[in-house]
Amino acid sequence: MNTVLQLTMKKIIPSIATFLILLLSGFSLKAQEDIMSRLDTMVDKETDYAEATFKSSRIINGHSIEQIGEDQLHFRISHRFNDLQQGWRNFWGLDGANMYFTLEYGISDKFMVGLGRTNELKTYHGFQKYAITRQSTGKKNMPVSISLHSSISVNTIEWNNPQKEDDFAGRMSYTHQLPIARKFNEDLSLQITPTFIHRNLVENPQVPNDIYSLGMGGSLRLTKWVRLNAEYFYVLPPFDSDKSFDNVNNLSLGFDIHTGGHVFQLHFTNSRSMIEPYYIAETTDPWFNNGLNLGGIYFGFNILRVFAI
User: Fold this and answer.
1) Separation of alpha carbons 264 and 226, rounded Å
2) Which of 125, 154, 155, 261 has the smallest count of CB within 10 Å of its CB?
3) Which helix (H) or strand (E) holds 276?
4) How do the pLDDT tens digits run along the chain, 309 residues long?
5) H or E stretch including 252?
């Protein structure tokens, strides 16, 4: 019994520590931001910052370097429908869908937080994103914009493994990302996203708990109102060669459609998942099987409603 308690505490303590780090870092970042904002105002008049590197805080599934504005509240709804190959009887997958909704709030123009839920494994998902620096020219010359994004997710699906005791800490996963982006001109923006994911509990000892990935994304203007987006997450092989990792990399293609004050995001992807530990670490369907035979391709969209508080 003591051994079980010790193992549980070993998993819970890192979870609590990560949560406290996220919480405290938020307050710390806010305090640092107040100081930095005063310094920024001294050079703002002589500095030209890049605006709207991306049209949304998401490229497709992944976070972009964009923040939502101070005191803005966003209600975001995302859907990923079933496999397109299900045919007309299931309306090419539209009869079923994974859903993910979030409430996101801009504490400042540089710091945002969010809380969401997806029906996949009945998972709750909290995150924060801080703009470390912005691309600029003039007195303050910076070639890229950099943000820090961290999240915690916990699945609450009913436990059905009689061989193992239900363990809350084992349900938790953590993601840390460092999006780095550059807006080359009004037509083209590119981003790379180094990513680290830790999962407390995996299916078996051969599956790694830690996942390292390099995300790549871009946005290309097609017309005044339409942009083409692409996003790819390459998962690095496990450092431990004894560990197996048979999942495939996530690839998504889509469009941003501007309708005045709103942006609708429509896309195709090989994952129905919408939070990092799932679409990066657990994608299983390639776009194509055996040459040009279509594999698992899913249609989806992101929409949001903005509230000013």
Assistant:
1) 10
2) 261
3) helix 276-279
4) 444 445 445 555 555 555 555 545 555 555 555 655 665 665 566 899 999 999 999 999 999 999 999 999 999 999 999 988 888 878 888 888 899 999 999 999 999 999 999 999 999 999 999 999 999 999 889 999 999 999 999 999 888 877 778 888 989 999 999 999 999 999 999 999 999 999 998 888 889 999 999 999 999 999 999 999 999 999 998 877 777 777 899 999 999 998 877 789 999 999 999 999 999 999 999 998 877 778 889 999 999 888 877
5) strand 250-259
Pair 229, 59: CB distance under 8 Å: yes
Residues 103, 98: Cα–Cα separation, whole Å: 17
What contacts 291, CB < 8 A, 6 or more positions away?
none
Instruction: Give Cβ neighbours of residue 177 (< 8 Å, ≥ 6 apart).
Output: 62, 63, 148, 149, 150, 193, 194, 195, 196, 215, 276
Write out the two tokens for 13. 């303590």
